[in-house]
């Protein structure tokens, strides 16, 4: 179930990146589009490598962190002029939680991860991503948040930390 969630979420992220590049039938590649595609492909690599029991290169887990951090910055800059914070706070919180969870996941590849930090961050990002997806928007936005929630749920389901404090 964990691998299915991870693969489905990565493919949804890939579809969301492709959909964000297509606007009104024309191709519009922004700065975020190639990084989002690379992040989705790196997540696919990580899921398949972990499913086979192989080690994952730490750099592959840092690409989604960079893509999410860039998306958070662009999202905040686009909505910073809006005086009503309630219109964008769930989306901003969801992207921030996804970024933090991806960063904590990448920390495990560098032998610096903490289950006490990762598990609540991962669970919180699933909930916030589903809330942001429920707010609606275009297909790209829906695919991003549903894909993010599925990826986080997959890693949450696959987490095995044993009895270490």
Descriptive report:
- There is one protein chain.
- By secondary structure, this protein is mostly helical.
- Helix content is 75%, strand content 2%.
- A two-stranded antiparallel sheet has the order 1-2.
- It is globular and about 45 Å long.
Observed structural traits:
165 residues, mainly alpha, two-stranded antiparallel ribbon, 75% helix
Strand order of the largest sheet: 1-2
Q: Strand portion, in percent?
A: under 5%
Oligomerization category of the chains in this entry: single chain
How does the overall form come out from the CA principal axes? globular
Q: Roughly what is the average pLDDT, rounded to an integer?
A: 87
Computed CA radius of gyration, to the nearest angstrom: 15 Å
The structure class reads mainly alpha
The stretches of 5 or more residues where confidence is low (pLDDT under 50) are: none
User: How many individual helices?
Assistant: 6
Element string (H = helix, E = strand): HEEHHHHH
Distance between the termini: 26 Å
């Amino acid at each position: 179930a964990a691998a299915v969630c991870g693969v489905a979420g990565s493919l949804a992220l890939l579809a969301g990146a492709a959909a964000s590049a297509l606007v009104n039938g024309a191709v519009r590649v922004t700065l975020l589009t190639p990084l989002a595609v690379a992040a989705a492909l790196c997540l696919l690599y990580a899921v398949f490598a972990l499913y086979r029991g192989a080690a994952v290169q730490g750099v592959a887990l840092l690409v989604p962190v960079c893509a999410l951090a860039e998306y958070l910055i662009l999202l905040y800059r686009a909505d910073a002029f809006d005086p009503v914070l309630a219109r964008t706070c769930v989306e901003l919180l969801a992207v921030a939680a996804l970024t933090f969870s991806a960063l904590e996941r990448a920390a495990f590849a560098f032998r610096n991860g903490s289950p006490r930090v990762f598990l609540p961050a991962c669970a919180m990002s699933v909930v916030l991503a589903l809330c942001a997806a429920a707010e609606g928007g275009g297909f790209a936005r829906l695919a991003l948040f549903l894909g993010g929630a599925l990826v986080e749920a997959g890693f949450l389901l696959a987490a095995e930390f044993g009895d270490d404090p």
